Amino acid sequence: MTQGPRPYNFSAGPAAMPEAVLQRAASDMLDWQGSGMSVMEMSHRGKEFGAICSQAEADIRTLLAVPAHFHILFMQGGGLGENAIVPMNLSRGAGADFVITGSWSAKSQKEAQRYCKANVAASNADSQHTRLPDPATWQLARDASYVHICSNETIHGIEFQELPDLAALGSDAPLVIDFSSHVASRPVDWRRVGLAFGGAQKNLGPAGLTIVIVRDDLLGRALDICPTAFNYKTVAENKSMYNTPPTWGIYVAGLTFQWLLQQTEGELRGVEAMEQRNIAKAQLLYGFIDASSFYENKVAANCRSRMNVPFFLKDESRNEAFLAGAREAGLLQLKGHKSVGGMRASIYNAMPLAGVQALVSYMREFERSHA
Ligand code: PMP
């Protein structure tokens, strides 16, 4: 099959994948490495899939520089599933603290209430989720079993540029981060993290795989009501094979980890290289928006997401024309989330700088012809 260049896809997730990964998965589709089987047809307990899974785990460990005292779990249930699974595993019947910075952390706090006392330690709702509450103002409970943040709010386009240092805030609770929408876009400071979770479908692979990275000492605390298949200790002890894992998702994410490990920018490799590219893409897009009087982004400059860029046409009556023209120009899925409106460009790792350049050219031309 011959194909022309593919359109640039700005979906928030499931999102664009590196083309090389899609091609590799396509060429392996009917017969993975001479095994006579598609990866989808393999027993998860066979030697072929065993090799795929342990390679994927080793590669994400290298990619994200995950220390040895953290377990990497391949699970199912997505970010929203983790909103219940985390409190069932970590709360021990005590309270947990939540920092609300947008829709996803708000959902996490609401769901956790079903399993534990879920305190709101801080919220930026009064700014319509456009700035981050200063960690110095967080009301952390002394006995919190963990502190939850969403380190990148996909809908509101807010990102922690640095993870909070809970110890410096006088808390010894583990920090839980929902890194669904910026995992592998920048390094993670594991010294500050107890547990990280995220669905794969934005930066790592297809929907259906959930990645949980959890510090060793946090295993074995699950409430009795926690389903065995979602007990982190059980999952860790069975190397993510207590029940059938999402084999296809692990395989494609594994190809993505290898692709990411191969990326370079000057001396930098892997996630450090991706971070430089992501900074360049974000600077180009925000710089253009800020310089224009036709478009705007409302998020405070110090916490703008490098991955999800919500923006508005000041004249919203032009929205439909903007989206139709974008589709025609090969720029897909730019419509903003319904709760925020306007537009959103998600520019994950798989989006090349050329895609953001094409978007900015289109925006400039649309402004010229409609201002
Ligand atoms: N957290 C964040 C930050 C997200 O962006 C999303 C999905 N958009 C979720 C959680 C929910 O994930 P899932 O749909 O995989 O349950």
Bound molecules: 4'-deoxy-4'-aminopyridoxal-5'-phosphate
Task: Report the C-alpha radius of gyration, rounded.
Answer: 21 Å
Give me the oligomer status: single chain
CATH superfamily of the largest domain: Type I PLP-dependent aspartate aminotransferase-like (Major domain)
Low-confidence stretches: none
Count of runs of 4 or more consecutive helical residues: 9
Secondary structure layout:
Layout: E1 8-9, H1 19-27, H2 47-63, E2 70-75, H3 78-90, E3 95-100, H4 103-112, E4 117-123, E5 147-150, E6 152-153, E7 158-159, E8 175-178, E9 195-199, E10 210-215, H5 232-237, H6 247-262, E11 264-265, E12 268-269, H7 270-291, E13 295-296, E14 308-313, H8 319-328, E15 331-332, E16 343-346, H9 353-370
Parallel strand pairs: 1-15, 3-4, 3-5, 5-8, 8-9
Antiparallel strand pairs: 2-10, 6-7, 9-10, 11-12, 13-14, 14-16
Helix pairs in contact: 1-6, 2-6, 3-4, 7-9
Bound molecules: 4'-deoxy-4'-aminopyridoxal-5'-phosphate.
What is the gist of this entry?
The protein is of the alpha/beta class. Helix content is 33%, strand content 17%.
Task: Kindly describe this structure.
By secondary structure, the chain is of the alpha/beta class. The protein folds into two domains: 9-19 and 264-370, Aspartate Aminotransferase, domain 1 (Alpha-Beta Complex); 23-261, Type I PLP-dependent aspartate aminotransferase-like (Major domain) (Aspartate Aminotransferase, domain 2, 3-Layer(aba) Sandwich). 33% of the residues lie in helices and 17% in strands. 4'-deoxy-4'-aminopyridoxal-5'-phosphate is lined by residues 13, 78-80, 104, 150, 154, 178, 180-181, 199.
